[in-house]
Amino acid sequence: MAFDKLIELVQVGDGQQVAAEVQKQLDAGNSAPTILNDGLIAAMDIVGEKMESEEMFIPEVLRSAKAMEQGLAVMKDELALDDVQASGKVVIGTVKGDLHDIGKNLVSMLLSSAGFEVIDAGINVAPDAFVAKVEETGANFLAMSALLTTTMPMMKQTIAELEQRGLRDRVKVIIGGAPVNQGYADELGADGYASDAGAAIKLAKSLRA
Amino acid sequence: MKELLQGQAGVRFGKLTDEQCAKIHEASCRLLERVGVEAGHQRAREILAQAGAKVTGERVRLSRDLIDWALAKSPSGFTLYGRGEEHSMPVEGTNVFYGNGSETPIMIDHRSGARRQGTLADVTEGIKLIDALPHIDFVMSFALPWDLDTGVVYLEQFKAMMANTTKPFAYVAPRLSDVEGMVAMMEAEAGGEEAHRARPRGLSYINVTHPLRHSQEDLEKLMFVAGKGIPLVYNPAVLRGASGPMTIPAALAVANAGELFGLVLAQLINEGTPVSLSGGTQDKLDMHSTIDVYSAPENRVAFAEMANWYDKAHWGLGGASDSKVVDEQAAAEAALSLTLESLAGSNLIHDVGYMESGLSNSLAQLVVCDEIIGWIKRFMQPLEVSDETLALDMIERVAPEGDYLLEDHTMNHLNDDWYPRVFDHRTFDKWTAAGGKTLSERAAVRVDELIRKHEIEPLADALSERLDEIIQEFKASE
To answer: What are the b/e assignments for B108-134, b being 16+ CB within 10 Å?
Structure first.
């Protein structure tokens, strides 16, 4: 396969070499959409499988995603926006009163690598700030994280705020964080819950479909 | 069985040399000098600036002199007191004490095995069991009571703790107001602020979200408790590879830097405030599941060694498992971590009985851990080599033909040895006759036995009413 080397380089996570290889493929006359689909995206599919089977560690997956982005940057002029338009737009953040960011950052990075456009609203995000971000960006996903049991009720308030502003039907609400569980998601009327970062990506993909 | 002495000295295990500890300390000082801490509290920054710290925006950089000054000012230990005269804990030297863990969102019901949310009744029962367990020395809040629908859940729960155990506490809450309420409740019990400072009932456990980024809440809790001059531990958590570097020495240096920052501020607020070092919770982040692994071999011992090197009390962690049920994994992880932290001379080993990365708590697992701690306490007793323990006169009289079964010496020392309560040392036939139960099944039975039999003197009516008033006062100011 013409893209074997490119696929290998994405998996290794060498961004500079990925960029160089993409350029080489363009020079050889391959079209940008072909390089994208048969090279970069094919590579990330393998990375996704290896993440699932625990052949790759999460930081390695993140590095592959970065490398893919570097390859994509080389083709930004060749690729019409439509070709790479994100298939989902996610506003993500940690709820009000909660300053934990590691889990949220992990999910953000993995969502981007899976082709979502991610708008990171940060930590300690109040319900109205979440909703304003959804409105402003036209996002179709809202992802909320909480690590403290004391801040979990903020998820409920944010969903109520979405309803009040008539935006609830426009977005899929997904939630996560150590003390959160499926029962709580059901109670809130969230669209989904994921117990870890890998599961969050699967969930978002399934809701996007 | 002879009562085992708490926290016997004797064994000290470590992996770091003094030179390596000094190197890690140097690294922390360099980080505090050059990188500093993002401190989200204005008054904290002002106090530090007045003491000579370099403040730029929210960033605070500390000089070595200031760090050395604070280390010299903070005492090497302190004592926590139970209700009444029992259960005093001198947290110093090589004394080792054990405590359960706090506020888990889930608990494992020892009767049904169900994994569910806890209620105030569960908490009350749990605290009562912990009071009854002979080897759990200090008490944390066990599970969160989900049936309480008030803004002051932490205070209602704290009252249940005060009513159901006479042992000392380690108390923790996300909000400053809850910490203030708990302290007010302990002061009411002691008979005032001064009386409580002289005989503090508990250690304030302050979790810090990030090693070098301290929030307003983190800092205001530290300043409140230090202002009272009562014991505290300020614990910046590092998840290696995420909120801190991947290698253990680097994670130690970063967490220690965050902790020294807290120590400096505490001493500036109130010279001589007793601060236990924890070295942060330097946890392994499982890079497949992204779970914060509590039982990892990488997590243990080095922090206790740093605290020993500084000659400060140490807040450690042990007896926590990542298993989902009380099984072989749970017992093995508990035994390994409790043994290592004990051998390292960690003074306050908490989170005993934790399961599932700190998400759930189990009374049956606590009973298993209590048994393991009994074993460890016996092992930790120093060996006395004396005429009495060598018993040469007797041996010369009995040996080589006789046996020792009827000797006075044997009688006098029968109670020296450790005998199990839930581990089984019987014959196969007797074990089978007793139902052939596994360890976790026997532990669940013992939970019920202890809860049924154990009695605690209730709080005096006046105190109980006063505690309710305090709770109402805090509720009203919500």
So the answer is: bebeeeebebbbbebbbbbbbbbbbbe
